[in-house]
Amino acid sequence: MTTVTSEAAVPGTLELGLARGAAELREFFRQKENLIFTVSLPAILMLLLGTVYVHEAAAGQMFAASMIGAGIISTSFVGLGISVVADREDGTLKRLRGTPMPFTSYFIGKIILVFVSSLFEAVLLMVVAMLRFDVELPSTAEKWFTFGWVFLLGVISCSLIGVALSSIAQSTRSASGVLNLPYIVLQFLSGVFISQAVLPESLRVAGSLFPLKWVCQGFRSVFALNDGYAVMEAAGSWELGRIALVLGAWTIAGLVLVTRTFRWTNEAS
Amino acid sequence: MNAIRVRGLRKAYKGHQAVAGVDLDVARGEVFAVLGPNGAGKTTTVEILEGHRGRDSGEVNVLGVDPAEGNRAWRSRLGIVLQSATDAATLTVREAVRHYARYYGNPRDPEEVIELVGLAEKAKSRAGTLSGGQRRRLDVALGIIGRPELVFLDEPTTGFDPEARRQFWGLIRLLAAEGTTILLTTHYLDEAEALADRVAVLAGGRIVAEGTPQTLGGRAHADATVRWMSDRGYTEIKTSEPTKVIAELSRHGELAELTVTRPSLEDVYLELIA
Ligand SMILES: Nc1ncnc2c1ncn2[C@@H]1O[C@H](COP(=O)(O)OP(=O)(O)O)[C@@H](O)[C@H]1O
Ligand SMILES: [Mg+2]
Fold it and tell me: Which residues in chain A are closer than 8 Å to B179, comparing Cβ atoms?
């Protein structure tokens, strides 16, 4: 007697991606450090820094918008990058590679994880901002539409770059340095903590090369009390078209980088 | 056709030849053990067969496919139990087994698999809380959930206490009895002897002997040692005809402390890997 019946059609890539996403979320929300650092940290920072920065309504709107931007980059770029390194370290990736699950499904699962955790983190931050600093939610459908696509493009492009960079790191410990350093530096260059307008030209240009600035600018356009506040941006306008272009370009670059650099294990093969 | 056929397999790491020309044939339904000390090249060999590592040269055929070109359909016919894994730590045993079942076209029933590997009582425990032996059972559960034709187990019982090993062997025998082809590596002699239909001894990246546990290294044909206590103390004779020797000797009366021994598998093995 043999059990040679394993060759039935393997399940679809999207279906498996959704199953991966469900398992990823389960694992994510069962780890306390994720809940503390990834989901709550932006809200806590909002609370602390907001007390210093926010003295009038307009400033609260702008700061909350920037913090949402910084938060989703933290969950996508830093959080996802580290989680891929952890998957390599604990053997998840090696096990998956030995199954019929396609790589695309793994990545779909990760994107679902990032979307849901980013959403949690953004909602928590908004609640804090609304209760403590009287921040108002955007009021028009058009603003929400902008919020939606900036969120989407921001998460996808930064996830891809995070996964690509994760290949450099050999362990979760080194990954946290490899990913956090650029993230923290970019927060200063991208108008999160200090307005880009006050930066010297060279630093402003450097910040403008990366997604964080554009995501934050997109969110500021959504949360600004009126469009007059665009004059405070480095370019003096919201530049929505350019935001889409830059984030789109990073998405493509990220895809290319991931397919070139992705490693399943830390061992030489 | 054989489940596994390997000819002239070679693999070096930065100048160090880890696998130096290995030939292997594993028939369908066979339990085959690759026995060898640490660093012999067992993991390297097995991971090349699994498609996890590349090779420098040689022909490799696993279930009719070159592992370097294995696709999803091919992977769904394999079960891989890696040497070490700590993944899925926050999932429960049941969640992990159910999740991995979804990857396959025709998986086994997750509850049956949990039962089979003896984790029914731990089904609700998180993987990260299992003992070493239980964790390996979970690894086996994940390895066989897809109803594989061929299962690879890399040193599955290293670090087990004797009782856990016995239990684990029972599990392997169950799988073998269902007709699953099994390739396992081990550095425990008794494990190879207890489980394998055939054994290959790997040392320094080469196969130095191959056969059934009974005949390995010419053991079945080796000279027997007849030993007894005479007036001059212990006396030994090496002979291919021990029965005849004893008949001769016993004509002079009772032989004290008489034994007839052949080289144990351990003697043969230590000789081979020396
Ligand atoms: N990824 C690797 N990079 C460099 N050397 C390796 C690697 N894997 C194994 N080796 C070396 O190759 C030899 C065989 O290793 P391995 O296949 O793991 O043996 P075993 O599993 O029998 O202990 C050892 O000398 C080991 O140090
Ligand atoms: Mg090994």
Answer: 1-3
Q: What is the pLDDT of residues B136-180, one digit of tens each?
A: 899 999 999 999 999 999 998 887 888 888 888 998 999 999 999
Chain A environment of B77 (Cβ under 8 Å): 6-7
For chain A, give every domain's residue range. Answer: 13-261
Rounded distance, CA A231 to CA A91, Å? Answer: 50
CA of residue A236 relative to chain centroid, distance:
26
Helix (H, G, I), strand (E, B) or coil at A220: helix
A to B CB pairs, distance under 8 Å: 114
- Total residue length of chain A: 269
Does any CB of chain B come closer than 8 Å to the CB of residue A259? Answer: no
Distance from the Cα of A170 to chain B's closest Cα (Å) equals 16
What are φ and ψ of residue B88, in 5° steps?
A: 55, 30
CA–CA distance, B71 with B65 (Å, rounded to integer): 9
The CATH number of B4-217, from 3.80.30.20, 2.40.50.140, 3.40.50.300, 3.60.15.10, is 3.40.50.300
Burial class (CB in 10 A: 0-12, 13-18, 19+), B220: exposed
Give the integer Cα–Cα distance in Å for B7 and B60. Answer: 7
Nearest Cβ partner for B84 among A5, A91, A264: A91
What is the C-alpha separation between B64 and B127, in angstroms, rounded? 35
List per-residue pLDDT tens for chain B, 274 residues long.
899 999 999 999 988 999 999 999 999 999 999 999 999 999 999 999 999 999 999 999 999 999 999 999 999 999 999 877 888 889 999 999 999 999 999 999 999 999 988 899 999 999 999 988 899 899 999 999 999 999 999 998 887 888 888 888 998 999 999 999 999 999 888 899 899 999 999 999 999 999 998 888 777 777 888 999 888 889 888 888 889 988 888 888 888 889 998 887 788 888 888 7
Q: pLDDT band for position A2 (50/70/90)?
A: very low
Tokens representing B142 are 């994940």
The side-by-side arrangement of strands in the sheet containing B233-239 is B233-239, B224-230, B256-261
Best of B9, B43, B153 to mutate for ligand 1, by most ligand atoms within 8 A of CB?
B43
Name which of B49, B82, B87 to mutate to probe chain A: the one with the most chain A Cβ atoms within 10 A of its Cβ: B87
Amino acid at A132: R
Q: Quick one: pLDDT at residue A5?
A: 47
The distance of B55 to chain A (nearest Cα, Å) reads 8
Q: Domain coordinates of chain B in residue numbers?
A: 4-217, 218-263
Expressed in angstroms and rounded, the spacing between residue A93 Cα and the centre of ligand 1 is 20
Residues A222-251 have pLDDT tens digits of 998 888 787 777 777 888 899 999 999 999
Nearest to residue A174, comparing CAs of A166, A186, A182, A185? A166
